[in-house]
Amino acid sequence: MSTNREWVNWAIGRIEADFHRSADTHLIPLPVPALPDIAIYLKDESSHPTGSLKHRLARSLFLYGLCNGWICERTAIVEASSGSTAVSEAYFARMLGLRFIAVVPRSTAQAKLDAIAFYGGECHFVDRPCEIYDAAQSLADELDGHYIDQFTFAERATDWRSNNNIAESIFAQMEREPHPVPRWIVCGAGTGGTSATIGRFARYNRFDTRVCVADPEGSVFHRHWQDRSIERVDHSAGCIEGIGRQRVEPSFLPDVIDRMEAVPDVCSIAAAHEVSQRLGRRCGGSTGTNVWACAKIAAEMAERGWKGSIVSILCDDGARYSDTIFDSAWLAARGLDIMPQQKKIAHFFETGTFAAE
Questions:
Q1: CATH of the domain at 124
Q2: 116 and 255, same structural domain?
Q3: Domain that residue 127 falls in
Q4: What pTM, to 2 d.p., does this model score?
Q5: 244-280 burial by CB neighbour count: b if 16+ within 10 A, else e?
Q6: Low-confidence residues of the chain, pLDDT below 70?
């Protein structure tokens, strides 16, 4: 056995041991008393060791790279990320004693940059989000390292049939609920890996569950879902970190998605504020995007007299956004008045109805 093979065996063992030390994440009911026949739940991915849904992805990407022979004992790891994936990958890189460099937009929330540094990672900044891909590949080539490339490998690094992926976890936790098979699962898309995993898992197990992707209004994904010829948008995808892209990522699989909801940033932020108040702790903007779409779906189900459950994702801890979406000066500087939309989502929670735009 080569020295490198011995190290790879050790590295895989370290990651698997970390996994076995971790409990599953909670499934939290989000009550809407006016809708007694419709139950909404949030899968709380903020409780992972690195605080976000991306912890699952980072673990899968490292195992994928190790088993493919791409990551060795002294390989420098490079990633293109808006923050949360880089935080989680920095955690695993430190665990294995590997150098980690995150290529991030300058606009990335400071709390995420601090978290990357906390786990021993370095940040390489670019001015525009669209520059992260080429910059990451160039840096990996320069260092003779490995560009881990979440945007390409997210949908294939995760075992969508089982292995405690997020879909398997959701369905297992729902088994004793009044409506154990969700009518809808709502998630965002940054790489597209989560929607691909959930959509494939539901089809593979023949569940009558539909997948809705809640997408920032400025993102390309919902445009591509409607018209496959649209593969890029020139303007910014918006200010909701972690979801929405300017280009269609290789891991985004539109054919496993049943519905897409384009959500304006102001609505996402308003919903994040409202849900944070109702949970008693802050959640991020991507969670707000998800909840806005959940509210629309739940209200439609009620109008049709349908019963059932909706499951979505609490993606990360809102403490990471104290200097952005939870900062009144930051909102004012961007002309974002969230109060009208927060009243609208609060009205949904109180009455079960969701007024049309």
A1: 3.40.50.1100
A2: no
A3: 55-154
A4: 0.94
A5: bbbbbbebbbbebbebbbbbbbbbbbbbbbbbbeebe
A6: 1-3, 237, 356-357
